[in-house]
Amino acid sequence: MKTTAKLSFMMFVEWFIWGAWFCAIVVVVK
Predict the structure, then answer these.
(1) pLDDT tens for residues 12-29?
(2) Residue 3 has what pLDDT?
(3) Quick one: CA dihedral 7, 8, 11, 13, positive or negative?
(4) Which domain holds residue 13?
């Protein structure tokens, strides 16, 4: 359970970072 929760948290952080990068690129392009 602890390992799964940690993995899920890491995936969430990774997706958050990618989302922030994507939004920044979209803003710059526009």
Answers:
(1) 999 999 999 999 999 999
(2) 83
(3) negative
(4) 1-30
**In b/e form, how buried is each residue of 1-30, taking b as 16+ CB within 10 angstroms?**
eeeeeeeeeeeeeeeeeeeeeeeeeeeeee
Domain count of the fold of the chain:
1
Predicted TM-score (pTM) of the model is 0.51
SS3 1: coil
Q: Which residue has the tokens 């799964």?
A: 4
Q: What is the pLDDT of residue 1?
A: 62
